[in-house]
Specification:
Shape: elongated
Number of strands: 6
Strand order of the largest sheet: 4-1-3-2-5-6
Number of domains: 1
Structural class: alpha+beta
Distance between the termini: 28 Å
Number of helices: 8
Radius of gyration: 26 Å
Order of helices and strands: EHEEHHEHHHHHEE
Length: 246
Amino acid sequence: MTNIATTSFYIKTKNLSENYLEKYSTELFDTWEQYIDRHVELEDYSLSLEIEEGSIKGSARIAAALYAIYMGIGNYGSFVSGVQTISSQIKSASDHLIENAAKSLQKQNTKIAKRYHSNKLTRLEHVFEKVRGRKISTEEAMIEAEKIFGEELKIELAFSDALKHSLDHLPQQSEQLFLPFNTIKEEFQIKTPPPISKAKIDLSQLEKTRKQIEHQKPEKPFHQPFRIEIWRESKKEKKNLRIIKV
């Protein structure tokens, strides 16, 4: 199987107990899996979810064999439209995961600070656009596809043959004539800010104040962060869970 989609998110929240985060992670995985089973047209896939405490760092991956992707694509009119549809389904599943990740923690005054999504089928869509725009040839497109899917593309001939046939028959955009235009140059005057006056600083007093502040700081109890990993190798395999101290 190849990882076809990765979703990462970071949620600002207070430290949560191990029991609470284990329950949260399990419920999040289950709702995500149920959504994928209903809305993503893949006969088999592998799912994994990692939640790291303090605040919450989440990372989720969907993996599938190219043959399973090929069979899913076959449910739609053409190879290109099938790629676009399944890519959209996977993106929707990732959005669903992130929305539920935040919704389940609303009582904790949470806020998603960062999110990231990578989808290999979306990258393949960009290759289609390059061929349509006459930017690359079919041969160059197949090289880019191999960079996306790796060695499995050479092994799964049904997928690679259908991809090449689709690239060969993609309707290409007509060439456009671009007329020259005048370049307008604008001059900007950069004003140098006035020099900052140097104030005399009593370093001995600063050091004394710093030591006083450090002396007043209470010692924080040692806290061992942890990570919860949940995964299922395929739809027929059992769900696994483990907790790792990090």
